[in-house]
């Protein structure tokens, strides 16, 4: 298991995996007072968390499906990427896509975080790409069903 250094300046427990097969950990709002998001309004919600990812890893910040489906609350810049060299506080860009105001309470689970390995690439300039069955088809070109 990979170990990640973290500073928790919030009043909440560290993020954890809710089940043995979970890919993501819920992140909680760390607020002095509730924040109300009006319809189509966005705000950066602090978490009180600061971390040091190992080189070759990123943290992906994703919406919580329950908030999205039930309340119309999602994330902008989704999935957001936290790079291994970032040392600032994790902030979550919430947006209210519903027609009703939404109140973000202190300690509320507002997003999920998935830690992933990645590789950097180097470009190889060419004149021709290999042929595939799909070719240049995109945006629904493989069918409706």
Features:
four-stranded antiparallel sheet; mainly beta; three-stranded antiparallel sheet; Deoxyuridine 5'-Triphosphate Nucleotidohydrolase, Chain A; 145 residues; 1 helix
Walk me through this protein's architecture.
The protein is mainly β and 145 residues long. It has a domain at 23-117: Distorted Sandwich (Deoxyuridine 5'-Triphosphate Nucleotidohydrolase, Chain A). It has 1 helix and 11 strands, in the order E-E-E-E-E-E-H-E-E-E-E-E. The chain has one helix at 65-71, and strands at residues 5-8, 25-28, 35-37, 42-46, 49-52, 57-62, 73-75, 80-82, 91-96, 102-104, 109-117. A 4-stranded antiparallel beta sheet has the order 2-11-6-8, with no helix packed on it. Strands 4-9-7 form a 3-stranded antiparallel beta sheet. A two-stranded antiparallel ribbon has the order 1-5. The longest helix is centred in the middle third of the chain and has 7 residues, at 65-71. The radius of gyration is 19 Å and the shape is globular. The N and C termini lie far apart (40 Å). The mean pLDDT is 95.
Averaged pLDDT, please?
95
Class of secondary structure makeup: mainly beta
**How are strands sequenced across the largest beta sheet?**
2-11-6-8
CATH class of the domain at 23-117: Mainly Beta
| CATH homologous superfamily grouping of the domain at 23-117 | Deoxyuridine triphosphatase (dUTPase)
Helix content: under 10%
Unreliable spans are: none
CATH topology of the domain at 23-117: Deoxyuridine 5'-Triphosphate Nucleotidohydrolase, Chain A
Kindly report how far apart the N and C termini lie: 40 Å
Family: Belongs to the dUTPase family.
EC number: 3.6.1.23
Keywords: Hydrolase, Magnesium, Metal-binding, Nucleotide metabolism
Pathway: Pyrimidine metabolism; dUMP biosynthesis; dUMP from dCTP (dUTP route): step 2/2
């Amino acid at each position: 298991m990979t170990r990640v250094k973290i500073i928790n300046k919030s009043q909440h427990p560290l993020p954890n995996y809710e089940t043995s097969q979970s890919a993501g950990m819920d992140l909680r709002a760390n607020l002095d007072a509730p924040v109300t998001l009006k319809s189509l309004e966005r705000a950066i919600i602090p978490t009180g968390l600061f971390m040091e990812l190992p080189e070759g890893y990123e943290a992906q910040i994703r919406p919580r499906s329950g908030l999205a489906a039930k309340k119309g609350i999602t994330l902008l810049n989704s999935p957001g990427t936290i790079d291994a060299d970032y040392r600032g506080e994790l902030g979550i860009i919430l947006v209210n896509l519903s027609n009703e105001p939404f109140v973000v309470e202190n300690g509320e689970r507002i997003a999920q975080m998935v830690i992933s390995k990645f590789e950097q690439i180097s470009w190889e300039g060419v004149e021709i790409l290999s042929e595939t069955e799909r070719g240049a088809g995109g945006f629904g070109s493989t069918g409706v069903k």
